[in-house]
Amino acid sequence: MGDVRLMKGNEVIAEAAIRCGCDGYFGYPITPQSEVMETLMIRKPQEETGMVVLQAESEVAAINMVYGGASCGKKVMTSSSSPGVSLKQEGITYLAGAELPALIVNIVRGGPGLGTIQPAQSDYFQAVKGGGHGDYKLIVLAPASVQEMNDFVDLSFELAFKYLNPAMILSDGVIGQMMEKVELSEYKPRWTAEEIEKISGSWATTGKTPGAQRRISTSLDLDSAKQEIFNHKLQAKYRAMEENEVRFEKIACDDAEYLFVAYGSSARICQKAVEQAREKGIKVGLLRPITLFPYPTKAIQEMLKNVKGILAVEMSAGQMVEDVRLAVNGKVPVEHFGRYGGIIPTPEEVVEALEQKILGK
Amino acid sequence: MTEEIIIAGFGGQGVLSMGKILAYSGIMQNQEVSWMPSYGPEMRGGTANVTVILSDDRISSPVLKKFDTAIILNQQSMDKFVNEVKPGGTLLYDPNGITHHPERRDINIYRIPGAALAVEMGNPQTFNMIIMGGFLKIKPIVLLENVKKGLEKSLPERHHKLIPLNIQAIQKGSDSVETVHTV
Amino acid sequence: MTATTEINKIISKENMVYGKTSVLLDNEMHYCPGCTHGVIHKVIAEVIDEMGIQDKTIGISPVGCSVLAYNYLDIDWQQAAHGRAPALATATSRLMPEKYVFTYQGDGDLASIGCAEIIHACNRGENIVVFFVNNAIYGMTGGQMAPTTLEGQVTATTPYGRDCAVTGFPMKITEMIAMLPGTRFVTRQSAETPGAVRKLKKVVQKAFENTREKKGLSFIEIVSTCSSGWKLSPVKSNEWMKENMFPYYPLGTLKDE
């Protein structure tokens, strides 16, 4: 067994960043995710790995620092919570438009507006459907444990560089603030200038080599015909992600007659609800999307052979449920159960909702 | 084995750190653990509570409505959690400041004069470990040696000299817990 | 001797008194007649060439008329969102401290929407060079008021002249920046005469030398014209600049430490 610790999800994000060879973190404090930058400041990775950690003057500046760093072929990231991530949307769409790899962590809190500092999942639309302007997609990973907070930092960078696309870890105050047992990753060295040249030399703005093609990091093309061709290229990339990168977990699904679909902390609550419902004789399973984009549409469709009804559980007024309904396409009833504004549903409430909204039909 | 525990009291009573030491002790005996605090404005001197789960299996929800054990350290927490103990479960409380004592008869109830004992020990910071001692006497879910390891892991090195005092406090708590009612 | 061989002799290398730097690309510039962006680009390109830092220089272009600056200088470029160039430059310089990083921004980009980014990059003393081209108007979007638009100046959004009681005052952001302890070298120049261009080139060189010596942030304002936005001929624009801009934005070095 490696380095096993008891850590908060937010602290683990910082630790995982250092260990996976991240080059730069740029952030701005906001509850409930300030521990990410605080942990980095305590750890002083600039002395250990050379990683740059900087508190920016705003979320807007932070995401644009990420744009600058990503343009250099570096592994760079930022983290924030909902209101701060709204401010970052401009930079995020520019990253997508310039095809730059980067990691954005959103420890979601209740909204709209300044909202609350308690956990929520009401930024699903923003993360998955756009958020910023233009036809773009983020790779969105939804950790459901502190261990996955660790694992998904490295995975996000891997996918971001594979597809030259920004990736988001969409978590919430439950996973960010709770402590669990976590086995930390092994240290990976940061990429050297030579490695960056090898991996990202075709686009990274590290200074023009004499005689070589110069590199320009931009999302601008005033020629509409070229812009359309570029958009086709982006769409092809998103289809490739849908083909290759869908991740999900099934719990108690083999004999399931009913199904919960839930991600992140809601999935944890649903896991308990599965136990409680099965004690009552209700054969319910849980399908947990791990990637929210690309979404496990096919996995849900495959469940429809045996499943008579689906309850989407999320800490929102009903966002992910739309993707469940698109997958199901009317074949079985799909209902939504959510608590929001920072209220976390209890497993008991989830079982009750299943009985009323799905079994009651 | 899965033990789902709520520890609730005032901010400053060491509620969160007690939960952390308990969780670390679980790790020391290869268990899965989770520690989920209430956070936010409540942190600033108001009520504080933390849900701690120790289990031999993967832990499902870190957020719970019902608990195997409630450790209650003030009246507000008593009001909030007395009815959230599962039937047959356990409630441990410090009577200091409690005006309405628990009356349920379907749960096991114990009490421990933690605040008074901490004064006796001349160190109010031993309070949470006295309570821990009481809890472990009733529910020996972690071994004392693992608590010691847990303390080593969760306390910063400069505070390691306080570990013997903490162990002493656990001992004191273990000796001082009183049974009020058992099912 | 034929005419062609005669010409070839005249233009032979030994007779060359001036040549275009290869750092300046041959792409036709989109700037309007009379605009000094082209001259400023050339000056920067020449300094990069003469210092031999082409392979180590990263330019950050803004949103505004010079958004396409990357088409003209043969170096690696990043194109920033409106006003955010100093944030990109911050990360680029910190992650690659051995490189020469500059931003190239207009008055709307730097002094309005990007005010926070420039102030904080200056305050942190980032080891970068900032070029601030101030022509007191938004050129790209069609001549609207900028923070540096003079009192009474007519623009598309101040059709009756800028009324300071309503819109605030022409912003002397370079003076503000000079006050910040993070800045090392702050100067205000122009580029309307050969003499001014020569002076400009000297400070550009000094600024990149500051980067090399890790001295911190160098800030160069270039007071400029906008014939299209001001609706004046290039010659009249220069006259208007001298009469109106120079008194309010006096040329000279504000800080050199």
From TrEMBL, chain A:
Pyruvate flavodoxin/ferredoxin oxidoreductase pyrimidine binding domain location: 15-188
Domain of life of the source: Bacteria
Keyword ATP-binding part of the UniProt annotation: no
Domain Pyruvate:ferredoxin oxidoreductase core intervals: 256-350
Annotated GO MF terms: oxidoreductase activity
Family matches, as InterPro entries: 2-oxoacid_oxidoreductase, PFOR_II, Pyrv_Fd/Flavodoxin_OxRdtase_N, THDP-binding, Transketo_C/PFOR_II
CDD domains: TPP_PYR_PFOR_IOR-alpha_like
Keywords assigned by UniProt, alphabetized: Oxidoreductase
NCBIfam families: PRK07119.1 (NF005507)
The protein's name in its UniProt record: 3-methyl-2-oxobutanoate dehydrogenase subunit VorB
Species annotation: Labilibaculum filiforme
Automatic annotation (TrEMBL), chain B:
Gene3D superfamilies with a match to the protein in the record: Pyruvate-ferredoxin oxidoreductase, PFOR, domain III
Transmembrane segments: none
Domain (Pyruvate/ketoisovalerate oxidoreductase catalytic): residue spans on this chain: 11-174
Record has Methyltransferase as a keyword: no
Keywords associated with the record: Oxidoreductase
GO molecular function, one term: oxidoreductase activity, acting on the aldehyde or oxo group of donors
Record's keyword annotation contains Oxidoreductase: yes
Highest taxon of source: Bacteria
A Pfam family of this chain: POR
Protein name: 2-oxoglutarate ferredoxin oxidoreductase subunit gamma
TrEMBL record, chain C:
A Pfam family recorded for this sequence: TPP_enzyme_C
Assigned keywords, A-Z: Oxidoreductase
GO molecular function: oxidoreductase activity, acting on the aldehyde or oxo group of donors, iron-sulfur protein as acceptor; thiamine pyrophosphate binding
GO annotation, biological process: cellular respiration; small molecule metabolic process
Oxidoreductase among keywords: yes
Start and end residues of each Thiamine pyrophosphate enzyme TPP-binding domain: 70-222
Annotated SUPFAM superfamilies: Thiamin diphosphate-binding fold (THDP-binding) (SSF52518)
Coiled-coil residues: none
Entry keyword annotation includes Chloroplast: no
Listed name of the protein: 2-oxoglutarate oxidoreductase
